[in-house]
Amino acid sequence: MNTATDNNATRTDSLHIVCPHCDAVNRVPATRLGQDPTCGKCQRDLFTGKPVDLSSARFLKQIERSELPVLVDFWAPWCGPCLSMAPFYEQAAQRLEPDFRVVKVNTEEAQDLAARYAIRSIPTLALFKGGREVARQPGAMDANSIVAWAQQNNRR
């Protein structure tokens, strides 16, 4: 977060938040994150309480332009552990937003991302901050474990 000073008057910290619907970049005061902010372009909610399914094209914008940490579930539709973890990941999304952007990447559809990030097993959780991967955890987890892992690794 950046604190700017303008003529000795302190402005509220604000963050760039990428819309999960239209990918527009919104500037949202940090104090308003928990007040159901909407996108200035499409007028839809910036936080839905559900993981956002991302294609390769949308993924890079979310991790590079959002000032929130981005939690990613790399998964595949044929993967049993991925499917069993899916409801827990949704529960974790409800608890982690608006402090995190929670997304899913189908490695079958986004094979370029799976290769780029060397995803060797699924499900794999990865945490991105400032466009860079800062933590990774392979294997299925329950909601409490996902939330704890994300919060712990966000402090680094």
UniProtKB/TrEMBL annotation:
PANTHER family: GEO12009P1. PROSITE patterns: THIOREDOXIN_1 (PS00194), THIOREDOXIN_2 (PS51352). CDD domains: TRX_family. One of its GO terms (cellular component) is cytosol. It comes from the Bacteria. GO terms for molecular function: metal ion binding; protein-disulfide reductase activity. Residues 22-155 form the Thioredoxin domain. Pfam families: Thioredoxin, Zn_ribbon_Thio2. Keywords: Disulfide bond, Electron transport, Metal-binding, Redox-active center, Transport. Belongs to the thioredoxin family. The lineage of its organism: Bacteria, Pseudomonadati, Pseudomonadota, Betaproteobacteria, Burkholderiales. GO terms for biological process: cell redox homeostasis. This is Thioredoxin.
